[in-house]
From TrEMBL:
Coiled coil location: none
Organism in which the protein naturally occurs: Fulvivirga lutea
Name of protein: Tetratricopeptide repeat protein
Signal peptide: 1-24
Keyword Disulfide bond: no
Length: 572
């Protein structure tokens, strides 16, 4: 940078010296002395200009100009300073004066054009560049600036003509072709835009990006068949290392219903070593988000398998394949892929959550406990993992372990009110099971404070109150609210019947229980309860029949054999 500045300084000084010598020859020795003084001020001004002390430079340049007001270079430098200070009118006056005095210096034209551009006077800026290119040789590079100015003015024909001149000087290039195509497309001249693309492809037949650009123009103008043909022709002669064009071709085939052919193209692209694992995974993620299930099965799943086989040590490959499998309902295989990913990289908590949720879905509750225990070692501050662990332990009858996990998770989740309510709901069940009834009721109440219409909490709370024969009016009220909202849920109907039974409202309980049985889907416990209600109504034979049905469904039910044998009700 310093060399460049010094060079500029020297050039300027030389320009001044040449000018001064010429004028000095005309006016004699006294004038030569004045010119040397002017040269001194210019040289000093140039030093300050290099140091970016423009105010001092301007004063010195002006002193030089006071002595010799015909030096174009000094006007040029003053114009530069005013331009830097955004005093554009003053800058323009000095730059134009420099050009007036010397119209053979290209930098004077450039400064004038730049100032006009900053002032928004694009026609004048364009005129200046036209004069520069016409008058001074080897200035074709400024055709780019001229074309840009034509575009600002929407002088599209002039811009095209200018770009054609650029091509004549420098040959066909990507930048110029794309600019011309942009103009043609903007002016609805599609055929001309495509012709420009064709010429570029002919000039560079091995450049994939030019083919892709042409295909994109065709596709955006509803000419998919032409785009497909273009890509097929290119790939016929360039089979290796061009996975991007193959991906576009595959997408065109997919859209036209050629799924098998699209899959074939995609497999070729996925086998290309230049198509890295990350980009493959990204594409599969796009498919997962956009394709219907049937196309996911046909197209995405085989590719997911291919990615896993090709990149077995990439955790994200297993994750995306697991996501695809889960989306098409292959839960077991999805779970296995997620587990495989954790063996490569165990740091993704979302994967652990997926594993645990799938274990729940597959009713593999022991596996939920196993994997949530591992996950908690890695993420001991994640409340949701304690929730899963506590829920699984509760389901398995490990009530003390459930309470421990749920309380731990509850402490970590104070800011997440929804999750906190979930913890309280489960704690209500767990504390009831270990007979800490006060804590159970407190947990249920806390859950209902957050969500008073939580049917599951209302149901469980009312059922356990009935079992404990406590606060039965409250239990009946809560249970009634639940069945009013869920009139065909047999579990909720059974709870309501049992609350009524506990309140000795046997006839009402019988009607509710019969409705549950009529709906269907009942279990052994429901028939046993129905038998208990019938017994209380004095219908012993009918009660025994219901108990027998319950035994057939669950031979290990507690007290059921004794009830049948003795034809007598025994309560826990």
């Amino acid at each position: 940078m310093l060399k460049q500045l010094l060079y500029s300084f020297c050039v300027g000084a030389c320009l001044l010296l040449i000018s001064n010598q010429a004028i000095g020859q005309k006016k004699g020795k006294n004038w030569e002395t004045k010119l040397r003084e002017a040269e001194f001020y210019f040289t000093e001004g140039e030093k300050y200009y290099i140091l970016e002390d423009y105010s001092k430079a301007l004063v010195l340049f002006q002193k030089s100009l006071d002595i010799n007001d015909e030096n174009a270079t000094v006007y040029f430098k003053i114009g530069q300073i005013y331009a830097k200070g955004s005093e554009l009118q003053k800058a323009l006056e000095n730059a134009l004066r420099a050009l007036e005095l010397n119209d053979s210096n290209k930098y004077f034209y450039i400064l004038v054009a730049d100032i006009y551009t900053q002032l928004g006077n694009f026609p004048k800026a364009a005129d200046t560049y036209e004069q520069l290119i016409d008058k001074i040789e080897n200035t074709e590079i400024y055709l780019f600036e001229l074309a840009a100015l034509y575009l600002y003015q929407q002088r599209y024909d002039d811009a095209i003509a200018t770009y054609n001149k650029v091509e004549k000087s420098y040959g066909i290039s990507e930048e110029i072709t794309f600019q011309k195509q942009k103009i043609y497309l903007q002016t609805n001249q599609l055929d001309l835009a495509l012709e420009e693309g064709r010429k570029l492809i002919e000039a560079y037949p091995d450049e994939e990006s030019f083919v892709i650009k042409q295909a994109e123009i065709l596709m955006s103008n509803k000419r998919e068949a032409d785009a497909k043909s273009l890509l097929e022709d290119f790939l016929a002669n360039h089979s290796n290392g061009n996975h991007q064009s193959r991906l576009i071709l595959a997408e065109l085939k997919r859209r036209s219903g050629e799924v098998e052919s699209a899959l074939s193209e995609l497999k070729k692209a996925f086998s290309n070593p230049n198509f890295n694992a990350g980009n493959k995974i990204q594409l599969l993620a796009q498919y997962r988000a956009s394709l219907p299930v049937n196309e996911l099965k046909q197209l995405a799943l085989p590719l997911g398998k291919l990615v896993v086989d090709t990149h077995p040590d990439v955790a994200d490959a297993h994750i995306i394949y697991g996501d695809l499998l889960q989306q098409v309902g292959e839960s077991e295989n999805a779970k296995n892929q997620y587990v495989a990913s954790t063996k490569i990289d165990p740091s993704n908590i979302s994967v652990w959550q997926n594993i645990i949720q799938l274990h729940f879905e597959l009713n593999e509750v022991d596996s939920v406990i196993y994997h949530s225990d591992i996950a908690l070692e890695l993420f001991p501050n994640q409340g949701i993992l304690y929730y899963y662990n506590g829920a699984a332990n509760l389901q398995q009858g490990n009530d003390e372990d459930a309470v421990f996990s749920l309380e731990q998770g509850k402490r970590l989740s104070s800011s997440n009110l929804s999750l906190l309510s979930g913890f309280n709901a489960l704690l209500g069940d767990a504390y009831n099971n270990i007979k800490e009834y006060k804590k159970s009721d407190e947990a249920y109440e806390a859950a209902l404070d957050f969500d008073p219409n939580n049917d599951l909490v209302l149901n469980n709370y009312s059922y356990f109150l009935a079992i404990r024969n406590q606060d039965l009016d409250k239990a009946e009220k809560m249970s009634k609210l639940v069945i009013d909202r869920n009139p065909t849920n047999v579990t909720y109907l059974d709870t309501y019947a049992w609350v009524l039974y506990t309140k000795e409202k046997y006839k009402e309980a019988k009607k509710v229980m019969e409705k549950a049985i009529e709906i269907g889907g009942v279990e052994a416990i429901h028939y046993e309860h129905y038998g208990d209600i019938l017994y209380k109504l004095g219908k012993v034979d009918e009660a025994v029949e219901q108990w027998k049905i319950a035994k057939g469904m669950d031979p290990n039910a507690e007290l059921i054999d004794k009830k049948i044998a003795d034809r007598k009700l025994y309560e826990k």
